């Protein structure tokens, strides 16, 4: 070391002044390079300044659809925050949503996953949270062509039959207050449970609801390790133990159902020579057709059956996607439609008059009536505008990108605020008012994904694959509840007194359950 010091001193014999100068310049050049690169990089989108290390974590109470919409009034439709070491961007205008969901859809097609989501989906073995890529594309194709297909008669039949049961249940409570929120949650749970596990699946339903509820709590729980990763080893909140217990409960429940389905299939194959009865299959049967001990992808095959193989973990994770996507979202939408119409008596009268004119009072609503129920569909669209089933659509960047002149780093969590976009004054007249007639306009936007001011089901590669089945259940339930019964608020409550607050989570259901008193509208024989 002393020799090196003497060598670097210019006043010593043998010292090289050029080498010494070079060593002195290297750190300066590195610093200048970093500064230059930062000066050339685009700025982050506007947003509140954060603190060292924790960033904006003190603002966690504003990470809801309503809180972010409030921040948009100050910072605009593209908002940047930093939660610990995680960059987050909120998209809250139709134009920015178009940039993310259409123009640069390939960059923004990943999904972010918390520690809880990653663990409970068997390391993203599902479709909802798997990263975009060839395997995800084949899983989505299975869901669209097989799981949610109109050709799968049992799913659509389960909607009709379970709605009929619900109407009968309400008819036995005429003149008494009915908790509509609990009624429709039970309906959607029964529909989805039956579609997933089969018409004969009755046992274990309550146990499965308990598993779903614990999953929902864990999905929504704040875990500081998601934002400051090195705390994950410590697990200061004790979440890891709950995750292990919850997944063990799901494994025990669904493994039994999968094994039972596999045994039934073996017996059928032995007696019928392997002929497939598609009318008698459920979602587990459809997914087991792709079962293998090891997940495989054959991108060269044009035959879906041979292009992908799913493990038990894939099947369990996809089933949970279906249960979450088809239960609380649809139930919340049904309850919001009824609540908004009861808050707007003139619109309710118009919907019920249309039902009487189209259907009559001597029968219930059937599927072939829907295309004639124009104003009912307008009321449903208006409700989805004000109360999208999932208020924040979550995406993640696969690489560094740019939106509207702002820098969006790789692995940024992107929250598309469908709730705020549906209430944006730049896109909608009188945006906070429930006015179904706005959708009678010939140029009114639709929710199929190309009108970015109205995206209750998302858009682009990550749009909801079960949209058609969900809409069918929503329309069928709302139409029959409004056609079969007149609904009044209990205890002399006025429409203006109704609570319009929601509860933020994966969905945004009403803060208080809707309770109403039904009386019959149809001939007694119909019930």
Could you please describe the fold and organization of this structure?
The chain is of the alpha+beta class and 527 residues long. The chain folds into 2 domains: 1-40, no CATH class; 117-526, Cytochrome P450 (Cytochrome p450). 47% of the residues lie in helices and 8% in strands. The strands form 4 sheets. It has a 4-stranded mixed β-sheet. It has a 3-stranded antiparallel β-sheet with strand order 3-11-10. Strands 4-5 form a two-stranded antiparallel ribbon. The longest helix is centred in the middle third of the chain and has 34 residues, at 239-272.
Number of extended strands: 11
Biggest sheet: strands side by side, in what order?
1-2-9-6
Count of runs of 4 or more consecutive helical residues: 18
| Sheet with most strands | 4 strands, mixed
Distance between the termini: 97 Å
Number of separate domains: 2
| Helix-strand topology string | HHHEEHHHHEHHHHEHEHHHHEEEEHHEE
Radius of gyration: 28 Å
| Structural class computed from helices and strand pairing | alpha+beta
């Amino acid at each position: 070391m002393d020799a090196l010091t003497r060598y670097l001193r210019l006043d010593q014999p043998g010292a090289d002044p050029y080498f010494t100068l070079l060593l002195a310049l290297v750190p300066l050049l590195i610093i200048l390079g970093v500064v230059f690169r930062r000066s050339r990089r685009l700025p982050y989108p506007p947003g509140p300044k954060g603190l060292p290390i924790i960033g904006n974590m003190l603002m966690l109470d504003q990470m809801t659809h309503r809180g972010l919409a409030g921040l948009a009034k100050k910072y605009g439709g593209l908002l940047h925050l930093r939660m610990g070491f995680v960059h987050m961007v909120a998209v809250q205008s139709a134009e920015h949503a178009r940039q993310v969901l259409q123009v640069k859809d390939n960059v923004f097609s990943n999904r972010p996953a918390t520690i809880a989501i990653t663990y409970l989906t068997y390391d993203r073995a599902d479709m909802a949270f798997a990263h975009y890529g060839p395997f995800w594309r084949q899983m989505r194709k299975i869901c669209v062509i097989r799981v949610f297909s109109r050709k799968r008669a049992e799913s659509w039949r389960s909607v009709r039959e379970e709605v009929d049961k619900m109407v009968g249940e309400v008819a036995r409570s005429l003149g008494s207050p009915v908790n509509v929120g609990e009624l429709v949650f039970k309906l959607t749970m029964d529909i989805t449970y039956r579609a997933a596990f089969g018409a004969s699946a009755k046992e274990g339903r309550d146990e499965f609801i308990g598993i779903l509820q614990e999953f929902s709590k864990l999905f929504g729980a704040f875990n500081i390790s998601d934002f400051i990763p090195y705390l994950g080893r410590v697990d200061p909140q004790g979440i890891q133990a709950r995750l292990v217990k919850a997944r063990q409960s799901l494994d025990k429940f669904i493994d039994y159902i999968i094994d039972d389905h596999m045994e039934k299939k073996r017996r059928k194959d032995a007696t019928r020579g392997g002929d497939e009865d598609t009318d008698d299959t459920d979602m587990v049967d459809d997914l087991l057709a792709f079962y293998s001990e090891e997940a495989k992808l054959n991108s060269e095959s044009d035959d879906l059956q041979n292009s992908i193989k799913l493990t038990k973990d894939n099947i369990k994770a996809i089933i949970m996607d279906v249960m979450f996507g088809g239960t609380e979202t649809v139930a919340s939408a049904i309850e919001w439609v009824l609540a908004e119409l009861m808050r707007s008596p003139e619109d309710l009268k118009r919907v019920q008059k249309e039902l009487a004119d189209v259907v009559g009072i001597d029968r219930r609503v059937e599927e072939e009536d829907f295309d004639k129920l124009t104003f009912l569909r307008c009321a449903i669209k208006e409700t989805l505008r004000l109360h999208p089933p999932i208020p924040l659509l979550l995406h993640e960047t696969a690489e560094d990108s740019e939106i509207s002149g702002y820098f969006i780093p790789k692995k940024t969590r992107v929250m598309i605020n469908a709730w705020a976009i549906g209430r944006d004054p730049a896109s909608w007249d009188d945006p906070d008012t429930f006015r179904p007639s706005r959708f009678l306009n010939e140029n009114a936007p639709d929710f199929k994904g190309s009108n970015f001011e109205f995206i209750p089901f998302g858009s682009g590669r990550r749009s909801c694959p079960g949209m058609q089945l969900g809409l069918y259940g929503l329309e069928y339930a709302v139409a029959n509840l409004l056609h079969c019964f007149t609904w009044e608020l209990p205890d002399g409550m006025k429409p203006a007194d109704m609570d319009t607050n929601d509860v933020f989570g994966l969905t945004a259901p009403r803060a208080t359950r809707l309770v109403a008193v039904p009386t019959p509208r149809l001939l007694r024989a119909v019930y």
